[in-house]
């Protein structure tokens, strides 16, 4: 009988110990979640800023059709400029996601690339563009001062830059499109706001 009572007491002590450890872990997970940053697109360029009018360009796409970049959209809808390269493996994997998001969000997409002609031909053989326009131009990348790819710039229907950043994943792309809804056009803007509120 004494052994039974002792074992019950030890079991209760062990149970209370495990409960305390669980509560401590839950608290730490909550703190970690609160401190962790969102995984949005990160701005890495020094080009035209969010809120600025995008530089305007009139040039032909890969197939010779005229394309207007910047200024008011003829369709009256936002435009996503995606800076890519035909040899970029991340861009290659991201392309179906770009098409899917463009359809779902009803936005125009212009892919802006640079490189050798045979690389563009290979890329376009492997991918059906659908409604996406494909422009080969180093000049546009220089105007936006894009240093890393894939890089997205979201313009509103009037050609104003609403959001921009490095877009390696679907989450990064979607963060550009969420800019108007959240009021934070970039990850840096969100973090600055959190620091200001914490002070």
Walk me through what this model shows.
Pfam families: AhpC-TSA (PF00578). The chain crosses the membrane at residues 6-26. It is a single-pass membrane protein. Residues 48-182 form the Thioredoxin domain. The chain has 199 residues and is of the alpha/beta class. 46% of the residues lie in helices and 17% in strands. The strands form two sheets. A five-stranded mixed β-sheet has the order 5-4-3-6-7, with helices on both faces. α2 (89-105) links the parallel β3 (79-83) and β4. α2 packs parallel to α5 (170-177). The model has no long low-confidence stretch (mean pLDDT 83).
Write the layout of secondary structure elements.
Elements: H1 2-35, E1 57-60, E2 66-69, E3 79-83, H2 89-105, E4 108-113, H3 117-126, E5 133-136, H4 138-144, E6 151-155, E7 161-166, H5 170-177, H6 179-182, H7 187-198
Parallel strand pairs: 3-4, 4-5
Antiparallel strand pairs: 1-2, 3-6, 6-7
Helix pairs in contact: 2-5
GO molecular function: antioxidant activity; oxidoreductase activity
Membrane topology: Single-pass membrane protein
Subcellular location: Membrane
- Kindly state the number of beta strands: 7
The secondary-structure class comes to alpha/beta
Strand proportion: 15-25%
Q: Rounded to an integer, what's the Rg over CA atoms?
A: 25 Å
Q: Specify the helix fraction band.
A: 40-55%
Low-confidence stretches: none
Mean pLDDT across all amino acids = 83
Along the chain, the helix and strand elements come as: HEEEHEHEHEEHHH
Distance between the termini: 61 Å
Assembly type of the chains comes to: single chain
Please report the number of helical segments: 7
Largest sheet: number of strands, sense, barrel closure: 5 strands, mixed
Q: Shape from CA axes?
A: elongated
User: Widest sheet: strand order?
Assistant: 5-4-3-6-7
